[in-house]
Amino acid sequence: MTQLPGHPHIHRVDGELHVEQLPVAQLAREHGTPLFVYSKASMLAALAAYRRGLQGRRSRICYAMKANSSLGVLQVFAQADCGFDIVSGGELARVLAVGARPQDVIFSGVGKTRAEMAQALEAGIGCFNVESEAELEVLDEVAARAGRVAPVSIRVNPNVDPKTHPYISTGLKGNKFGIAHERTLAAYRRAAALPHLRVVGIDCHIGSQITDSGPYLDAMDRMLDLVAAIEAAGIRLQHIDFGGGLGIDYRGDQPPAADALWAELLRKLDARGFGDRELLLEPGRSLVGNAGVCVTEVLYLKPGEQKNFCIVDAAMNDLPRPAMYEAFHGIEPVAQRGGAATTYDVVGPVCESGDWLGRDRALPVQQGDLLAVLSTGAYCMSMASNYNTRPRAAEVLVDGDRAHLIRERERPEDLMRGERLL
Ligand code: PLP
Question: Among 59, 146, 161, 358, which has the highest number of CB atoms less than 10 A from its own CB?
Fold first, then answer.
């Protein structure tokens, strides 16, 4: 058995790719392609690493469900006693559908609507992570109308460079997220004065796919300066939320392990005298990213003068990260075969030149072979679209030797539901 680098619980047995105990090729035969296959054990192992790092502390892990919001995945985290970080009323409906405790739900996002605020107040969520001073005023009004008091935390933009792709950097001055560091104290004073808000915490989230602990340590320092100033103004903070953002190994990336990162961060927290606070974290990618692969069939091989193309049945609508961020996903044959490799651009059927999944990949493949696109548990299905009227893929969650179909493949009639002829 050989382990796939960076993918716990995904390995090869006699050259055949397996997720936990099940051969991927068998799952593809049963459910068709493109097909997402996830390992439950891998998700739980990633969660356990965070919990090891936080052992002995008052803490809550709120899975940032935007990474993968399929109900079966949410259920795994709800059953493991996680909270959830949501960014829309739709996400709230999903977590409630899997039986999550509303008080363990926190609501992030720069553009919460009044209707979403009312829905979240009605559900009784644990905290609104407020991202602007204008949002504080609107939330107070909505809470007043609902006859409730909204628990709030203010998301601070600490102006720290997370050294990641600009589209997933969120804690710099030029980003739309959070309230500027310099405005935070004034915003807390206002929040504390509004009658239908109750200040409960402070939060930040500086970006995603962070592979170095330095930006976290810098952000923590800046946050703790603020905590000291806010509390000196007489406003007590019950929790400190450091967001998510920890990276995964896509291509030999070496992010710190969650337990090691937290050991380092907690040393700083203790040294600054805030070790007794309840900690909240909002990890997404690092809990699910390397728990999943996407299986796709090679439809055609198309040799060319400048490029050879390997045309597969998964596309940018299923796997949007390469088109969006020029992101890298490993791509490997599901069954290792001998023979010479040819260099291909692996592309999908969508009518866009941006529809590529991997460039210049040396692959020993033939028409009809199955390929596995790796590290596709996060920000793939949750970002999938129906562009080109392509039904979204099916999803299977493997638990040991059992496969649960957690999402049926869409059919064209599903896509046309709700549309009307003139
Ligand atoms: N929290 C907030 C507010 C976010 O915006 C995000 C992602 O963008 C996350 C948590 C999760 O980040 P990641 O998946 O990198 O852990």
Answer: 358
Q: 204 in ligand 1 pocket by Cβ < 6 Å?
A: no
Please tell me the residue having the least CA distance from ligand 1 atom 7. Answer: 208
Catalytic site positions = 351
DSSP class per residue in 370-398? EEEE-S-SSSSGGG---GGGPPPPEEEEE
Question: With respect to CATH, is domain 2-39+289-416 assigned 2.40.37.10?
Answer: yes
Task: Read off the pTM.
Answer: 0.97
**Closest to 326 (Cα-Cα) out of 294, 357, 363, 288:** 357
Does 88 sit in the ligand 1 pocket, CB within 6 Å? no
- Sequence spans of domains, the chain: 2-39+289-416, 108-283
Residues in contact with 376: Cβ distance below 8 Å, sequence separation at least 6, in sequence order? 36, 289, 292, 293, 294, 319, 329
For domain 108-283, the question of CATH label 3.30.1360.120 is answered with no
